[in-house]
Design goal:
It is built from 13 helices and 18 strands. The protein has 442 residues and is of the alpha+beta class. Strands 1, 2, 3, 4, 5, 6, 7, 8, 9 and 10 form a ten-stranded antiparallel beta sheet that branches. A five-stranded mixed beta sheet has the order 17-12-13-14-18, covered by helices on one side. It has a three-stranded antiparallel beta sheet with strand order 15-11-16. The radius of gyration is 24 Å and the shape is globular. The C terminus is likely disordered.
Length: 442
């Protein structure tokens, strides 16, 4: 999936791929100066806040380094309703007054309800192979931000408008975790960078690096930035996954015998060694990526008629295997098998870019229509709603050429599959159990 923001971040940081995530502090600037305003502006952010049913902690406000009571910016309805004057809605008058005084407003998981940020997060997930969410930070006038702290995930910071002062220090504990064996309360002493970020600037801050940002002492003005959080996989994540798999075996479900050196203890150790050998880290990486359910989307309903355009909504890049006479596709905990002639249409439909079906049919044939319906029924594709179209417009180009979709992973595999008689007929649907979510937060 070619996304204008992903390409811009790579260029700004001098990266040639996601392998640099978590390897060290980096900063740069987007060459495309119009991109930040295309993604989000302060006014559009406030419009989003006004039109959503939001509550604490998804939306929070801070002054003088302290979190304000939700009543300072939310309606406090008596009846618990969610109408125009009911609880759960932001009181825009109160919020406006706070922002005039100088406040930091934080909006978590903005990708859940904004299509532009949804598509951006999905593109970064396809790019990195890691789970991605985005938080938005709006700071006005001389408001300070959070104190010196570290995050338990790697982040990419993109300054969208205004200015903010940052300080970034090195870690005081190597790659700390949310659930760790030791506390990590003492800030690192080495200052890696301190300065001002402006619209278009990009920062990469790895997990465990101490940092703070604010506009303390700046006077009038504002800062708007978004922080993409990458929940990366660790050795501890792999062991947690193995612990979940152990429950499939009766031996691990029995109560532990209290006698040290018992036969049960010996058998458990042997079974644990066998389990580790049978499910190496590579299996965990593949299972975690391809067993994640697609993002929330508008379902396909035949009663509404045929869709004009579709888009792939898989959380991660689908894996296509060209097996010669058949094509096998793996994603979102499923494996679908198609006749070989479906390959060009599958590459289009699973490219992550908007696909106008009638125009695509002129390139790959009319079978793109029934294939699209199959993929929508399995929740791999979704109708290209006006919202999703707006989230892609100017950021992700439409695709109607097979060569444009070449980035969809194409893996040759000699595995046997069920014979098929029609390119638009799924003959093998396998749905393996999804692994449990990582213990590490995002």
């Amino acid at each position: 999936m070619d996304h204008r923001l992903v390409a811009g971040v790579e260029e700004a940081l001098g990266w040639a791929g996601p392998q640099h995530l978590g390897t060290g502090f980096a900063r740069g600037s987007l060459r495309d100066r119009e991109l930040p305003a295309r993604v989000l502006t302060p006014t559009r952010l406030l419009d989003l806040v006004m039109r959503r049913n939001l509550g604490n902690p998804q939306i929070r406000c801070f002054q003088d380094g302290k979190e304000l009571h939700p009543g300072a910016y939310l309606h406090q309805g008596v009846g618990g309703g969610t109408g125009r004057d009911g609880a759960g809605l932001v009181h825009m008058g109160r919020l406006g007054n706070l922002l005039r005084e100088g406040t930091t407003m934080v909006l978590d998981r903005a990708d859940v309800f904004d299509p532009t940020l949804e598509v951006a997060c999905r593109s970064l997930q396809w790019w990195s192979g890691e789970r991605v969410t985005v938080n938005i930070y709006l700071t006005t006038n001389a408001a300070d931000g959070f104190g010196l702290h570290w995050d338990d995930h790697d982040v990419l910071v993109v300054q969208l408008s205004g200015e903010k002062d940052w300080e970034v220090r090195g870690p005081s504990r190597a790659v700390p975790l949310h659930r760790d064996a030791a506390r990590n309360d003492t800030p690192g002493e080495e200052t890696l960078w301190a300065g001002t970020v402006r619209a278009g600037d990009v920062l990469h801050i790895p997990r465990g690096y101490w940092h703070r940002a604010g506009r303390d002492g700046r006077g009038s003005g504002h800062s708007l930035h978004m922080t993409f959080g990458f929940t990366t996989r660790t050795g501890a994540s792999w062991l947690s996954w193995l612990a979940d798999r152990s429950r499939e075996h009766e031996l691990f479900r029995h109560d532990l015998a209290p006698t040290p050196g018992s036969e049960q203890h010996r058998r458990l150790v042997e079974a644990a060694v066998e389990l580790v050998g049978s499910a190496p880290p590579a299996d965990f990486l593949a299972a975690r990526e391809h067993a994640v359910a697609p993002s929330r989307h508008v379902p396909f309903l035949e009663t509404f008629g045929h869709e004009g355009s579709v888009i792939c909504v898989c959380a991660f890049r689908p894996r296509i295997r060209d097996l010669g006479e058949t094509v096998e596709v793996l994603s979102s905990g499923k494996k679908l098998t198609f006749k070989a002639k479906a390959l060009p249409a599958l590459r289009l439909l699973l490219s992550g870019r908007p696909v106008p079906l009638d125009r695509a049919a002129g390139v790959v044939g009319d079978e793109v229509h029934p294939l699209a319906e199959i993929l929508m029924r399995h929740a791999w594709c979704a109708p290209l709603t006006p919202g999703l179209a707006s989230g892609c417009s100017g950021l992700v180009a439409e695709v109607t050429d097979v060569t444009d979709a070449a980035e969809v992973t194409d893996v040759t595999d000699a595995a046997e599959v069920t014979d098929v008689t029609d390119a638009a007929e799924v003959t093998d649907v396998t749905e393996p159990a999804a692994p449990e979510p990582d213990a590490q937060g995002s």
